[in-house]
Amino acid sequence: MMNVESQIEALIPSLRRYGRALTGDVTLADDLVQDCLERALSRLALWRRDSNLRAWLFTIMRNVWINDLRRRSARPEFSGMDDAMETASTVPDQTDRLALRDLASALAQLAPEQRETVLLVGLEGLSYAEVAEVTGVPVGTVMSRLKRGRDRLSQLVHGAETSIRRVK
Known about the structure:
Elements lengths: L3 H7 L1 H12 L2 H17 L10 H20 L8 H7 L6 H16 L2 H11 L5 H8 L3 H20 L10
Helix pairs in contact: 2-3, 2-4, 3-4, 4-8, 6-9, 7-9, 8-9
C-alpha cells in the first residue's frame, strides 16, 4: 500500500485537469493545485484514512477556488481546452483539433454547475456520490445537473441535427 504522500502525488494530474476546468487558465490552475496541495498537506491529520482521498482533495480544491473567486469577485470563463491541447502527449490531427475546439466552446456555454459536474464525472471518472461529496450537493442534484449538462452539450455540439427527424 502506498503512503499518503505517494497517493497524493499520483493524483496531481487529475487535480491539474480539474484546476484547468475550474479556472480556464493553465497558470491559474497550477497555482490552484499548489494552494490545494499546501492546504491538504498542512491538514493531512484531518483526513480520515477510511475516506476517499481523491474526493477529499477535489473538495479542498473546489473550496480554495470558491474562496479565490469571492476574493476577486469575478467569474473566469472556461477556455482551457486550447492549453490542454498544447500539453497533450500526442498532437491531434486537424479533425480532432476542430472537435476539441467545438467541445471546449460547448463546455464554456454550460452553466458552471453543469460544466463542473460533467467534467468530474466524464473526465475525472468520479462516481455520483463522490461528485456530491466534492460539490456539497445531494446525489439527486448531481444526477440532474449531469443529465441537463449532457443534454445541453449534445444540443450545442450536434446543433439542429439532433432535433430534425427524417420524414418519409
